[in-house]
Amino acid sequence: MGRIGRLPPDLANQIAAGEVVERPASIVxxxxxxxxDAGARRLKIHVELGGKKQVRVExxxxxxxxxxARLAIERHATSKIRHADDLGAIRTLGFRGEALPSxxxxxxxxxxxxxxxxxxxxxxxxxxxxxxxxxxxxMAEGTIVEVGDVFYNLPARRKFLKSDxxxxxxxTRIVTQLALGYPEIGFTLTSGGRTAxxxxxxxxxxxxxxxxxxxxxxxxxxxxxxxxxxLTGYVAALAETGAAGTPSGGPARGPxxxxxxxxxxxxxxxxxxxxxxxxxxxxxxxSPEVHLFLEMPASxxxxxxxxxxxxxxxxxxxxxxxxxxxALRDALGQGGAPQLQLQPERAASEAGVRVAAAxxxxxxxxxxxxxxxxxxxxxxxxxxxxxxxGARAPGSGVSGATATGAGMPELRPLIPLGQFRDTFIIxxxxxxxxxxxxxxxxxxxxxxxxMRQLTAGRLxxxxxxxxxxxxxxxxxxxxxxxxxVQLEAFGYEIERFGEGAIKVAAVPALLGAEDSARALxxxxxxxxxxxxxxxxxxxxxxxxxxTSCHAAVKAHDRLTYEKMAHILDELRATAYSTVCPHGxxxxxxxxxxxxxKNFDRI
Length: 602
Ligand SMILES: Nc1ncnc2c1ncn2[C@@H]1O[C@H](COP(=O)(O)OP(=O)(O)OP(=O)(O)O)[C@@H](O)[C@H]1O
Ligand SMILES: [Mg+2]
Hints:
This protein has 602 residues and is α+β, with helices and mostly antiparallel strands. It is built from 17 helices and 23 strands. The chain folds into four domains: 9-199, Histidine kinase-like ATPase, C-terminal domain (Heat Shock Protein 90, 2-Layer Sandwich); 216-331, Ribosomal Protein S5, domain 2, CATH 3.30.230; 340-441 and 556-598, 2-Layer Sandwich (formyl-coa transferase, domain 3), CATH 3.30.1540; 459-551, 2-Layer Sandwich (Ribosomal Protein S8, Chain: A, domain 1), CATH 3.30.1370.100. It has helices spanning 9-20, 24-37, 66-72, 99-105, 155-159, 164-181, 205-213, 268-280, 317-331, 345-358, 438-456, 474-481, 484-489, 513-527, 536-551, 561-573, 592-598; strands at 42-48, 54-59, 108-114, 121-127, 130-137, 142-148, 186-191, 194-199, 219-226, 229-236, 256-260, 263-264, 290-295, 301-302, 313-314, 340-342, 415-420, 424-429, 432-437, 461-471, 493-496, 501-508, 587-591. The longest helix has 19 residues, at 438-456. It is elongated, with a radius of gyration of 29 Å. Residues 30, 33-34, 94, 99 line the site of magnesium ion (MG).
């Protein structure tokens, strides 16, 4: 007897479903994509208990004739490709003929469909992959798919689902993305008794963005047409291109929605090009909000490379990278000669005074004490990022610079000399030159303060004279509303205000009212994905990080000498903190030894 046997079809389908159907949101995605492929103009999506109890997708597309409806729930049955050649030029979102049978194999499944122009519709019921009934029904033209009790026959999979709210948020996110990708189609999403999203067909992407995200003057348009690739969309602006005169920080953190030939994708090449463009513009935001749409000939990419179709492969990857990078760079308005903003004499003379009090000789007579002091092995190239001056990181090996002579304070103050591009503080001490990212440093300082205050109780709150209403994407509102209690400890008092807005009555005192909108937007992005109740400490840290980030001085803020000195002093007190709460480095160190070596002075 052989040991190998063929799997029965329902089991094969369940296994396929393991790849295609991860959670209710993936069901919503597959069904909505089918509706889009069927030429629907309006989609109505409804979920119960985050989609665990039910997902229903209703469309006004072309529908199916009875024999097609029967075939649609069979594996490898598709109307979208016929020959191997077709794989090279796919214009539809679906092509595998796997979604419906997979979904039907792990749920109570009902398909109702009526082809355009036909007199009646067909209803097919499937339970765990087995057809239970097929009947003729009266209905409007189009298709309705109902998926009940997903994974009811796979308890192990069901256990891995998040809370209802968590799953609902994922559903809202995917519908938001689809709505963004197809402005001409109307989308409605209801969740339980609530309308989570309502977007009538829109004339343009700009209108759709407005429907979803409200007024956003912090997004700039991008566009480029090169090498057969067309890129359009909007990205989070840098501070200097933001609304004139308003104090604003780095680009808004937020969703990175990337579409290739109208397909939502996650792509490393594109993600890298985005980061590249932002860091070239001197902002190291790890996840700036972008909404990008790439169009290229179907033959320029392979869409058949990922089980949930979430990734594609580009024929010319470097070209895609270059088009995206350049388009963003241009949009972000990089350019202009580098500028070194030196502080006026007053600063220098004050520095002198401070020097005299702190470390004699740094600016004064140019005599460096302990010049030949053995500096240990710590000062290799890696020490360039060594962070706070003289901070002795126990056992870290980068503390050689502090091998001090008697009587020297262990943490020496840095003397600010001025700003570079209004973004970096240039400072010196007798160990060398430090380039400090003013925003990151201040953020670090505030973060420590926030965490201290939080341990002692709660953050000081400042009640707004007039509550402010902030427009947010529905999923963002949902995320924040689920966290009101934790946010209160930080001084935020918020309340849901309709589907797409949050009413803010109080904000942390260290945050101005103007900064609160940005901070809340960022918070929504940060807290998204953390399941309610779980990882509370993580969530608190994130709120603290986001709050300090938005209260901190920004890149492109011109600082007074006092402010620079204050930031450096405070930074000194945070001792070993060499990275910001988001993990970005605070400081670049050019050590005395490196400087001297470069000038052949050793
Ligand atoms: N809402 C709908 N309206 C009209 N026809 C549909 C609809 N949903 C599915 N179909 C038909 O059923 C077929 C099977 O759908 P299914 O989603 O299983 O596969 P697919 O879309 O072809 O490929 P994929 O597995 O990549 O999604 C489709 O090819 C299409 O012809
Ligand atoms: Mg499909």
